[in-house]
Amino acid sequence: MSPRFRLCCVLLAASQCASAQVTNDQLLRPDAQPANWLSYSRDYSNQRHSPLNQISTDNVARLQLQWVWQARSLEKFEATPLVVNGVLYTVQAPNDVVALDAATGRIFWTYSHQPSPARTCCGRVNRGLAIHGDTLFMGTVDAHLLAIDAKSGQLLWDIVVADAAAQYSITMSPMVMKDKVYIGTAGGDMGIRGFVAAYDIRTGREVWKFYTIPGPGEAGHDTWSGDSWQKGGASIWNHGAYDPESNLVYWGTGNPAPDWDGRMRLGDNLYSDSVIALDADTGKLKWHYQFTPHDELDYDSTQVPVLADISWKGKPRKVMLWANRNGLMYVLDRVSGEFLLGKPYVEVNWMDGFDAKGRPHRVPGMVPTPQGTLVRPHVHGAINWAPSAYSPRTGLFYVAHWEHSGIVAIEGQFPQSVGINARQTTMGDVTLEPFLNNDDEARGVIRAYDPVTLNVAWEYKLGNITWGGMLSTAGDVVFGGGKDGYFVALDAKSGKLLWKAALGGQVNAGAMTYAVNGKQYVAIAAGTALFVFALP
Amino acid sequence: MRHVGHSTGKHVVLLWLLLASPFAMAQHATGSDLFSGEQAFQNYCANCHGKAGNQIVGVDLGHGAFRKPYDDAQLTDIIMKGIPGSPMPATPGMSREQAVQIVGYLRSLAISKDAGAGGDAARGKLLFAGKGQCFSCHRVDGEGSRQGPELSRIGLSRKSDQLVTSLLDPNREVQPQNRSYRIVTHEGQRISGRLLNQDAFSVQLLGSDEQLHSFEKADLQSAEFIASPMPAVRGTLSDQEVADVVQYLVSLRGSAKR
Fold first, then answer.
1. Considering only residues 217 to 236 of chain B, which have any Cβ-Cβ distance to chain A shorter than 8 Å?
2. Most Cβ neighbours (<10 Å): which of A386, B18, B133, B176?
3. A490-508 mean pLDDT
């Protein structure tokens, strides 16, 4: 054996002894690794709350730009990066994975996936990655699921989750629990049949699949008239949550199809516009709650579920907090699915109350009509896909959403926006646009809510509507942004503006924070670039 | 200009190969088409892709190594319209006939790829894992070390004669992305590995410890390319065993795709 071969063997032995980069235990207990951000929301509860506190209310005003990474893409930048031991992983839309030095922004490697032609409703975007061991996982707009080596950027496996030619696509970040990676698809507006599936993290082999529209003979199938179930939508296109104690995994489901015309799909259309709780190992449905039965206004319920342990009427309770696109905010028992509380958090006119089980009471006439009906909130919602946050320190639920939005729903047609500034509520874009609205027209707000009463604790008014998400930190600072291109830091207790940065492009993502060599950083995507800040 | 009779001997060979290939039905290309395709490729494409079509990392047009398995119609569209969001531009002045000829030319190159080194791929696989100890530095389909180049798709980008050279004389030709690099910090820390990126102020590499490293150049005593740690296999493997390993490497064409 040559000396070089011996050297290689020694090195190999050393590498084989090294533990996997990200373990199940680390994913379950991310607070033990506060410097890292290991999943889309940092943890399975989706609180997007970091224990890092170097940046605090006392010093956040001194934040300075550290580096910028510009994507080679003209698509919206919706991804939340991951950070593992000083390496930042993100996605250059649509589907290039990039590994950067988290302290300097310099590139280690890029993996480029050229998706086949695929039709997406709202841009060829991607919201982020998952990681387990040394393997990154990404869904693609042509509905593949990829496993990529986190060290070298090499493709490990590539499976077809669904047929892109049949209008399936993937924009969500995958989830990883134990030995499985979970992902659903977009395409609900195009008439797919939604599902979420679990795959073996080593091989990509499908372990189970749960269709969000029950097939013949299954409970709930009779909530669809005729054959409408076959192309009824209800897609799962955003991140879910996981509760290790109950071993339940949760996702919100999208609207039924066709979106704005329910005449050919009579019934409640289960499990569209719902939250589903599945056994993480088997995919069996444990409970569901439907937010908007028989939706005709495109009120996807694909918001990211936020799990919190709070005191409810004097007793500890494991709850799920949900700010929904339909303008209602909810508190559910996440173990049983029991409806605990629900109330409008923006101007809502399509319902006026709940029954004892939490079914909304529809206001008569608030449906699409031949002459058009003004319905609030907007078809894009009070909130859409952007993630909210919860701070266990303040006990407040932080939501960036829209107020005073509305739409004219017309039978059999695409809804028409309200007022002269109809474009103001269109989907997020990359570049900044003039904002022309009055205060009584749609605008954005960041609000803190008491999860027990759902009352507003404070409000910060944005200059435009927002497609940006929220970040909470143990420094009692919350971060957010919006279409006006400002990235703001607010006092988590009062909502007072502490710092702002004009980024020159729309904020269409949630911020995240991490540390390298003891220095805390805050990262936010805006326009087509990733901006990273820290104290001097 | 579609008369086979006008073709040179080389073109006749290409045509024969084309007709014998699974691509033949899709192409219907004549030797003249292939000649025109080659000319168009050199005029329009070689500036970025290189004369042999292998100048862009991860893409080797002459070996059929595209970003993904495109069919002829998709390749034709890409040549004419480009790939949005990538450096691949549209070619507005090109006719569809020219684009089809380029596809035919590239397909003909791919099917005329080498037949290997006269070895046995199954034996080569065993030698790769055993006597050759290649997994000590290389990785195939998720198995092995990341110290050396990843080889899961090596058969798409390197010909057998090039692989034989790499085994017998590893330093004669090293791909740019595989060059070995060593840094020494002011504190005396030494790290070597594959250079991934560098700029005026910093350097990034995948170390032989299989970790990603990034350094400020101001913190370094030295930073330089070094000889490949790949050992020459002469004396370790017989000629037949080299041929077997090469045959195995030629067969590696990306089983990661399912």
1. 229-231, 236
2. A386
3. 97
